[in-house]
Design brief:
The protein is α+β, with helices and mostly antiparallel strands. The chain contains 6 helices and 11 strands. Strands 1-2-11-10-7-8 form a 6-stranded antiparallel sheet, with helices on one face. Strand 5 and strand 6 form a beta hairpin. Helix 2 runs antiparallel to helix 3.
Length: 288
């Protein structure tokens, strides 16, 4: 009789635990679905072609938890050229999403008004600082965002970059990869007001067929089972001939392989390709 009672108790407990686990998994799946929808609303798809440039974007949320991250990107066509933004908000959760939404809203508005890239960064930072002050709390100075502002004018083969404490963009050419970094990065947004350093704009020449990759540090900080960081530049060197979509697809798959399908951080990337020169058109062949 004691054996029967113990078996029945264990069976009941197992059934209760199984039901609880199923409910928990369903709740987590719902939370993840809501998080993905919110992220898609926040990060609307970028246009695949703007003023001849070919653009593709990538966003990967960390698989371990149902979290909404603060990684962000944007591309805007303006009278000053195509303006690009990549950023990473400190922290996770609703505060990070609110901060990212405020940053994207400020950028989308100011990108059309400010003629100079440093002025654009300054205006966005002013908006971010105002919002952080309105939110109050003890972490106002810690609500910062690393970001890169870039600009590709329609009438000049150049890219201008203002870096605010973010990983530098990468210039990709066939067999050649270069980080666009001259050591003049400004502090992250919402910290520049405290430090008081100016924004520096660096210009780099572009050739037909060149490609830019803007990314967040979730890529380079991805580790494998042995703890080794993801080798982004060597990988890009071997993929330098790929167009933007194939490049990001290859990067996506390789990150999952490197991490064993266990990403520890959110990831965002924006790839932009300058149109290649069209071959000269010779005289038409005579009709025979």
């Amino acid at each position: 009789m004691a054996d029967y009672v113990c078996t029945a108790v264990v069976g009941v407990l197992g059934t209760i635990l199984a039901a609880h686990r199923i409910r928990r998994e369903r709740t987590l799946a719902d939370v993840r679905s809501v998080a993905e929808i919110a992220q898609r609303v926040l990060l609307r798809p970028v246009a695949q072609r703007i003023d001849g440039l070919v653009l593709e974007s990538l966003y990967l949320s960390a698989a371990a938890e149902a979290r909404i991250g603060g990684d962000l990107y944007e591309a805007v066509r303006t009278r000053y050229g195509v303006r690009l933004l990549i950023g990473d908000v400190r922290g996770k959760g609703l505060l990070a999403v609110e901060t990212a939404a405020a940053l994207l809203g400020a950028f989308r508005e100011a990108a059309h008004d400010e003629p100079a890239l440093p002025a654009l960064a300054d205006r966005v930072e002013t908006s971010m600082d105002r919002r952080a002050t309105q939110l109050g709390g003890g972490e106002v100075g810690e609500r910062f965002v690393t970001a890169v502002f870039a600009e590709i004018p329609a009438d000049s083969p150049v890219v201008r970059v203002v870096n605010c404490g973010h990983p530098p963009p990468v210039l990709i050419r066939p067999g050649e990869v270069e980080e666009l970094d001259r050591g003049r990065s400004a502090p992250p947004l919402n910290l520049g007001v405290l430090v008081g350093e100016p924004y520096h704009v660096d210009a780099y020449a572009l050739r037909p067929g060149d490609q830019l990759l803007l990314y967040t540090d979730g890529i380079t900080e991805t580790r494998d089972a042995a703890g080794a960081f993801y080798p982004l530049l060597p990988r890009l060197r071997s993929w330098s001939a790929l167009p933007p979509r194939e490049l990001l697809e290859r990067l996506h798959g390789d990150l999952l392989v490197h991490s064993g399908n266990r990403l520890q951080d959110d990831i965002a990337a924006l790839a932009v390709r300058v149109p290649a020169e069209e071959p000269p058109q010779g005289p038409p062949s005579p009709v025979r």
